[in-house]
Amino acid sequence: MLTKTMAGALAVAGIFAMTAAGPVAAQGASAPAKQDCPSGYACFWEGPHYLGRVVRIQRAGVTTFVPKVASWDNSRTTDMRVYAGFHQDGPSRCVQPGESSAGVEGFKAGSVRIYPSASVC
Q1: Residue 101 has pLDDT above 60, yes or no
Q2: Could you give the C-alpha distances from 71 to 15, 20, 21, 46, in angstroms and in order?
Q3: Contact at 8 Å (CB) between 45 and 16?
Q4: What are the strands, taking DSSP E only, across the chain?
Q5: Is 55 in contact with 44 (CB distance < 8 Å)?
Q6: 94 neighbors 119 (Cβ within 8 angstroms)
Q7: What's the predicted TM-score (pTM) here?
Q8: Domains in the chain, start-ordered, CATH in brackets?
């Protein structure tokens, strides 16, 4: 359930991420570096080169980003697939464990599916 405090934090953060289990809070207003993605997490930045607000997701599942995210890092041990569309539609890219994208190629993700177990891609 989205509490008033969480809703305020998400609105201030600028990125709204929603999973099936509920909202995922964006972190901080500074420009975090790629190394700020802890092991076991999938991290997504609103700007290219890992700049802007960051969303860190630990659980497997589907997440939608508004606005879209431009760079990401998969520090999990499972694959994830990023989609251009908000509903797991449009062009997509598989991101294996340890892979990342600085967003220089212009692809922006509107949603992601993080797989719960072994390699899928």
Answers
A1: yes
A2: 13, 22, 23, 7
A3: no
A4: 16-19, 22-24, 26-27, 42-45, 54-57, 61-69, 71-74, 80-83, 92-95, 100-101, 109-114
A5: yes
A6: no
A7: 0.74
A8: 4-114 (2.60.20.10)
